[in-house]
Specification:
Cofactor: Mg(2+)
Largest sheet: 8 strands, mixed
Number of helices: 6
CATH superfamily of the largest domain: Fructose-1,6-Bisphosphatase, subunit A, domain 1
Radius of gyration: 18 Å
Strand content: 25-35%
Order of helices and strands: HEEHEEEEEEEEEHEHEHEEH
Protein name: Fructose-1,6-bisphosphatase class 1
Strand order of the largest sheet: 4-3-5-6-7-8-9-10
Distance between the termini: 29 Å
CATH topology of the largest domain: Fructose-1,6-Bisphosphatase, Chain A, domain 1
Organism: Halogranum salarium B-1
CATH architecture of the largest domain: 2-Layer Sandwich
Subunit structure: Homotetramer.
Helix content: 25-40%
Structural class: alpha+beta
Number of domains: 2
Shape: globular
EC number: 3.1.3.11
């Protein structure tokens, strides 16, 4: 992870500041961009006009930073080289509008950002920072770097600290599991039954991973988009979702896993590589890994 003495500290701050500054533009543009395009993204998902707009906005502004040498997006097939300073620049992988399918029903969505000190596709060990913006009733931003995890209110594109040194609560209370139940492997189904039998745990699943992750971060618990019978590697992308969310949750005192190891230890082989994602409180992920053995 980055530290205060890390030479990339200023670059990370510049990237975070740029993402926050663009948040109001993206949010203001959503009402007029709820329609589907004829195109699909590299993961085979139908794109909305809002997906393309957010991607172009981030590419333009992040790509203009001297601190960024590569830009990759869930919405693009190829990695985009930028004019950043090659010797000191960072690679940014972004999910411009996570949960954009929620736009039609006016539910939560957000933006996920991963900052790597390596060419893409990069390993979790190459992450120096990660963040997400959450478009809920208010706009908030979570950042993780060498200083820990911080929650901000984003007001008119400017970050205001809400909570410093965010840590997962010791008493977890929420869970959210993705994928179709009939498509779950038996060992994961057994794990979910154990979680659901605990009266202290409440289901929280909203169809946008970023909203469900924020519930886990604030209340403690577990989120999973598991390996499926029809998709052994799950649905979520390592570069854009698995690594940055794993980094944030681990920085907040939790754990991440692909079922056998930390998400940050998964070997990268493609910028759109999929991976099962399990994140949450340490004991819940330990219990999950034991169930999947």
């Amino acid at each position: 992870m980055a530290t205060q003495a890390d030479p990339h500290a200023d670059a990370i701050e510049e990237i975070f500041t740029t993402v926050a500054a663009l948040a109001p533009d993206i949010r203001d543009a959503l009402p007029g961009r709820r329609v589907q395009n004829d195109e699909t993204n590299p993961s085979g998902e139908t794109q909305l006009a809002a997906d393309i707009y957010a991607d172009e906005l981030f590419r333009e502004h992040l790509g203009a930073l001297d601190s960024v040498v590569e830009y990759a997006s869930e919405e693009r097939t190829k990695i985009v080289p930028t004019d950043g300073e090659e010797d000191t620049g960072l690679s940014v992988a972004i999910d411009p509008l996570d949960g954009s399918s929620n736009l039609k029903s006016n539910n939560t969505m957000g933006t996920i950002v991963a900052v790597y000190d390596a060419p893409l596709p990069a390993a979790g060990s190459d992450l120096v920072a990660a963040a997400y913006v959450l478009f809920g009733p208010i706009t908030t931003m979570i950042t993780a770097d060498g200083d820990g995890v911080t929650e901000y209110l984003v007001d008119d594109g400017v970050r205001e600290v809400i909570t410093e040194d965010v840590q997962l609560p010791d008493d977890p209370s929420v869970y959210g599991f993705g994928g179709r139940v009939p498509d779950w492997p038996d060992d994961f189904t057994a794990y979910t039954e154990d979680i659901e039998s605990d009266d202290s745990m409440k289901l929280r699943y909203g169809g946008a991973m970023i909203g469900d992750i924020n519930q886990v971060l604030i209340y403690g618990g577990v989120f999973a988009y598991p390996a499926l019978e029809s998709a052994p590697n799950g649905k979520l992308r390592l570069q854009f979702e698995g690594n940055p969310i794993g980094f944030i949750i681990e920085s907040a005192g939790g754990r991440s896993s692909d079922g056998t190891q930390s998400l940050l230890d998964v070997e990268p082989n493609d910028v759109h590589q999929r991976v099962p994602v399990y994140v949450g409180n340490d004991e819940l992920i330990e219990q999950l890994e034991a169930s999947l053995d």
